[in-house]
Design goal:
The complex is a heterodimer of chains A (97) and B (423).
Chain A (H helix, E strand, L loop, with lengths): L2 H16 L3 H4 L4 E5 L3 E5 L1 E8 L2 E6 L3 E14 L3 E14 L4
Antiparallel strand pairs in A: 1-2, 2-6, 3-4, 4-5, 5-6
Chain B lengths: L1 H10 L1 E7 L3 H10 L4 E6 L4 E7 L3 H11 L2 E8 L1 H10 L1 H17 L5 E5 L6 H10 L13 H11 L3 E9 L2 E8 L12 E5 L3 E10 L1 E2 L6 E2 L4 E4 L1 E2 L11 H13 L3 E2 L3 E17 L1 E19 L2 E6 L8 E10 L10 E17 L2 H17 L8 E9 L13 E13 L1 E5 L3
Parallel strand pairs in B: 5-7
Antiparallel strand pairs in B: 1-3, 1-4, 2-3, 6-7, 8-12, 8-22, 9-11, 9-15, 10-12, 13-14, 15-21, 16-17, 16-19, 18-19, 20-21
Classes of the chains: A alpha+beta (97), B alpha+beta (423).
Chain lengths: 97, 423
């Protein structure tokens, strides 16, 4: 087992014991969905692709793909973003979250 | 978010259109450098529209150069742009300021004067005095000395006992309280003194007039006690000197009797009866102290309970309901009302009394009953308590179930009252 995986496992167990939310300890994205109209995303690493039908957002390890129609980026802040439009699906791509 | 937008409006923001091969890179770089972008959307195949604050515009230029994008400003929004726009439209700003100034100026005059509370003094009279004191339609509000006007009205109009001047917006309200002047010529009109109630005369002191009754006499209500008609004096020629007889002749020559406004004090013994009966066993309902209030809103035919229980938890209760309704305006009647209801729990129980207890209570009630009718300052001279045992023999106490008490109170009081008459 690679050293990195061990470190990750220890971290996860640590956060489970102390009940620290994952997005703080493990650098995971926190996603809040409001119906199929809005997606709030915390802890992102920037967008990698943006079209009205598809938004791909880089997170800790891997990407999140939002597929929909008429997507807009309501606001982008260094830590937080909001996507608006008709959302059809949210897919986790690559990486091990 | 709203706060963000408010700050953006105050600081000013622009809507830009970005063209380039990869606008995503520009967005990423902007967000990592702390430039806030919002409302990002595609406008057509190759350009993106985004909003950005004025402070972020210069850094965005660098980022655009680095990422190979080009942007142009589409709209300028926010306070700084609004101000610069207004600078170019000086006349409109001047007009707005003039409007405000005019509104302020016109609202600083007195436009209406209302006079209230006067019945005999005429409005025009009051307004005339007020004008002399500096209150008239068209004067400046801050030049108005309300205390001075009040004083002037009180000083110059003898019929006014108090006046109040208050400013409400452009309306001045002059409140008037008039003096209550007793009817003219009191003490000169012929009048009798008559009995206010029946009683036994104790003493009579005639200051003016002719006594019509004697001490120790029983009088009935309305009977003349001191007459305002003085009969002509009896002429006794034997004792009178010639001079005085001349005078007498003159008097009798003028008229048979004199009419005066009778004055005097008439005291009499007056009796008051009080009666009360108290049953030995009585059913009484009394408040327990528990209460529940409920607020209901009524919209049309529907009723919604806003607070309080659905069902009143008391077996016996009394309720009071307050209804609040929106004021009707013209023909529009909004069918919404709020009912505040209060329910007070009642409990009924039987009270058992002994005969003495019942008699005590009956006596107390009877005294109270009698004293209600006695004037406050009348001294009580005598009190007589009488037990009435109706329908039962006094010896057979077991059969008595009601205590009846009758009291008679004797007072001495002034019973004379003036009554005008026409000779």
């Amino acid at each position: 087992m690679a050293w990195r995986d061990v470190k990750k496992k220890v971290k996860r167990q640590f956060s489970e014991i102390l009940e620290i939310p994952g997005e703080v300890m493990l650098d995971l994205p926190k996603i809040v969905l409001v119906g199929n109209l809005q997606v709030f995303l915390e802890n992102h690493r920037g967008i990698t692709e943006y079209t009205p039908e598809l938004v791909r957002i880089a997170v800790g390890e891997g990407e999140i793909e939002i597929v929909g129609e008429g997507l807009q980026l309501r606001s982008i802040l260094p830590e937080e973003m909001c996507v608006e439009g008709r959302i059809d699906s949210i897919v986790f791509l690559g990486g091990k979250l | 978010m709203t706060l963000f937008k408010l700050v953006s409006f105050l600081a000013g923001y622009v809507v830009v259109i970005v063209r380039g091969s990869s606008p995503e890179r520009l967005i990423n770089m902007a967000s990592t450098r702390g430039i806030w972008l919002w409302n990002i959307k595609w406008v057509n195949q190759e350009s993106i529209m985004a909003s950005i604050r004025l402070s972020g515009l210069r850094p965005l230029r660098h980022i655009a150069r680095e990422t190979g994008c080009r942007f142009s400003i589409e709209h300028r929004l926010g306070l700084p742009f609004f101000i610069s726009k207004m600078r170019r439209r000086k006349t409109m700003v001047a007009g707005a300021l003039l409007f405000l100034a005019l509104l302020y100026m016109l609202s600083s005059f007195v436009w209406f004067i209302d006079v209230t509370g006067n019945t005999t003094v005429k409005d025009s009279q009051i307004l005339k005095v007020a004008r002399q004191a500096g209150l008239s339609v068209g004067v400046l509000k801050w030049n108005l000395d309300t205390a001075g006007v009040e004083e002037a009205i009180q000083d110059n109009l003898s019929k006014v006992s108090w006046s109040g001047v208050s400013v409400k917006g452009t309306r001045v309200i002059v409140e008037i309280v008039e003096k209550k002047i007793p009817p003219d010529g009191v003490g000169h009109n012929p009048a009798h003194i008559v009995a206010r109630k029946e009683g036994l005369l104790k003493e009579i002191l005639v200051l003016k007039g002719h006594p019509a009754v004697e001490e120790g006499q029983t009088v009935s209500k309305g009977q003349v006690l001191i007459s305002g008609v003085i009969p002509p004096p009896e002429i006794n020629e034997e004792t009178d000197t010639p001079q005085s007889s001349e005078e007498d002749e003159k008097l009798t020559g003028e008229g048979q009797s004199q009419y005066v406004h009778a004055q005097g004090i008439v005291r009499a013994r007056v009796w008051y009866d009080g009666y009360s009966e108290v049953p030995l066993v009585e059913k009484i309902t009394r408040r327990t102290g528990a209460e529940v209030s409920r607020i209901r809103i009524k919209i049309g035919d529907k009723e919604i309970i806003l607070s309080g229980p659905e069902k009143i938890p008391f077996k016996e209760y009394e309720s009071s309901i307050h209804t609040k309704r929106l004021p009707a305006w013209r023909n529009i009647n909004i069918p919404v009302e709020i009912n505040t209801e209060r329910y007070v729990e009642l409990k009924s129980f039987k009270v058992q009394r002994t005969l003495t207890q019942a008699r005590d209570i009956a006596l107390k009630n009877a005294l109270k009953d009698a004293k209600k009718r006695i004037p406050e300052n009348a001294p009580i001279v005598n009190r007589k308590v009488e037990r009435v045992e109706a329908g039962h023999g006094g010896a057979n106490m077991a059969g008595v179930n009601v205590a009846r008490v009758k009291v008679t109170i004797e007072t001495i009081e002034e019973i004379g009252v003036e009554k005008a008459f026409k000779p």
